[in-house]
User: Fold these one by one.
Assistant:
Number 1:
Amino acid sequence: MYDVAIIGGGPAGSTAATVLAREGFKTLILERERFPRFHIGESLLPLNQDLFDELGLTPLLKQEKFVLKYGAQFVSNDGGVERAFDFFQGGLGADTYAYEVERETFDHVLLKNAMKQGAEVREETAVLDVQTGADRPCTLRIRNGGQDSSVEARAVIDASGQSSLLAKLQDLRVKHPSHQKIAIFARYKGAVRREGRKEGNIDIVLGPGCWFWIIPLRDDILSVGAVSNIADWKATGLAPEAFFEKCVQESPYVASRVKPGVRIGELYTASNYSYTSKRFVGDGFLLAGDAAEFLDPIFSTGVILAMKSGNMAGKELVKALRSGGPLRAERFADYEKAFRRWTTNHFKMIDAFYGPGFAKVFLTPKNTLGMVKAVIALLAGRSDPGLLDRLRLKLFYWVIQMNNKHGWMPDPRSTDAAVPHG
């Protein structure tokens, strides 16, 4: 019998497994795919670096020579207005950076690191059913190579990503009603890249009824994605590829960036964004990363929240297993409280992004009472800001509301480009 069985070998699962295996617990990762495998979510955040250090990942990631990201640009649809943010403006240090990664490589590095620490990994193994309990072994029914079997563990961490296996089995998943999006994305070789310090920065383009990401990767490749309301996409009657091309052609800035390039590989889609779970823990189990809650990808929070939650889930189980006794849900209350606090802070900024008047304030460079510092720190991955930054963020949201009412700040974009982006 294993101490902990982890469903999913992505960032949340690999992180939790590394924590547990290093502490001597018999840990099993059950991963339905064979790594390396394609995954979206290539733009990381700088406040992930401390966790990389803690997990022994920093030298492994440096060896990969990923593109370095020092900040982000928010750009109007016509390219006429641009607001650049550098992470150092968030009080994080002059040379603060994050990585732009190919997730197939990054995730594989994390999984191999978990194995090196002693975790057992079974790839191409699907989990079909899970029975959990506080004072009895958890049983997982699995399938590998067409053969069904079962494994037992004292506890389970569900890190199955958007599959949300346990949340679905126990009817815990709840959609966020206003954030149901579709993302359509592809990679281009030879497209236009920025130069100098901004070469590795992500571009967020405020398009008509959608927004785009442009992420520079190694080997002269750009990841380009369009995110729109599912309802708006369906209303066009277009296939995803045709809809993507329509969005690109309606964005002069994006079209100019991709025009010299050649699309490589297939075009991908991801839908049903933004959901939560009625609870993140239960008797004998914890949900981590996207298996618990998924946020719209606008601010690149997926990997850092996955790893933070996986790290804390692993540590909470280390404490609980060592102290003994039934693994009742209430023993993991602090984990759920912290995880919900992190996602709530990010959800507020996401709600502001899709709400009226965001661009008018966001694209106007006014650092009133340190608002810019607090906003950039949150966008850099500070999921749990201190009291002063929380007050500054409240001020930022209040300024948007008051500007909508009184019109203090005019929209810096041209009339044609000043259109809703979602």
Note: The longest helix spans residues 302-323.
Number 2:
Amino acid sequence: MANSDDKPTLKITLEDLARVELPAQAPAGNMAAAAAGARQYGNVAAPADGPAVVTEEKGHFFLQGWFYLGVAGLIGALIGWGICEPFYRSPGRSPFLSFILLPLVIMFTCTGLGVAESIVERSGKKALIRAMLSLSIGAVFGLIFYIAAAFVYDIGRYIIFSLGVETNRNPAFWLVRGVAWATFGVAGGIVYGLVDRSGAKTKYGILGGLIGAGLGGTVFDPITFLTSAGMGTVSRCVGFGLLGLATGVAIGIVESALKDRWLYVASGPLAGKQFILYKPITTIGSSQSSDIYLFKDTSILPQHGIIELRGAQTFIRSDAPVFVSGAPVRNRALQSGDLIQIGRYAFHFRERQRK
């Protein structure tokens, strides 16, 4: 008896196969193509075991160290001035106000410099910790370096007065103030490096602070003459603001000019920023405690990898997918110009040419 479930056998001939048309495969280049000027951090069609397709972006100038440190120093100095100024202008003010004005300006300038990078990197937790540390250290250093600056200022004035200088309209007087105020920049530079626990960063911060605060102090008196008669509100505001601004800008310029090895962010939310590699071990990950905090990417682990400095060589070690020049790596020595990809972030590793 025939089985009622039996069905006719399906037969496919060579002629049938020849008539089948496959859809045209899109060129690989089209996968990564993006409209001119458009941002592209990755591609859903990228292979699971390969790097995401990224488009290099033009960096924003406000992610340059000299810019955000200058703004941070300016804001910090103006906060210190703003706290004292209402009392400073009140009748019968206490001489104590004149004594604490500059220490407060120094303290808040130090705080601004200490938290600037964390704010730019959008790490609120790190910014809060550094703010508390900067305020406490800045308060102590503000008083210490104010006393030191006053001592230098008095000696300088004694010298120029003995040489016949009688007024603060003489450029020699401006130079004396500049030398004295350079001391304030030392405080800012120390705090800038201490909050990041980096000796090299502290050294560059001190040098930049000396230059910036010295320039700010040198032009303080000329600005006073241009803005108001005597030591008015406007002159104090502009003068102290310039002190903080010049200190931050100079620290950023010196740090960038003397850097040895660094990562330049080519793609991602921080495109244009550079991470200078100061420490023997630099951690990278989505944890805010990481030295390089990579946010808004769920594919990045809290500690995704590290960069290690071993003498003249630089190594990258990974605990999760990291690609260097398109190849997956676990432990590799980096060469200047290497493209490092972590999630949707891309970095150029660069190092100063050694003679």
Note: The CA atoms of residues 11 and 308 lie 64 Å apart.
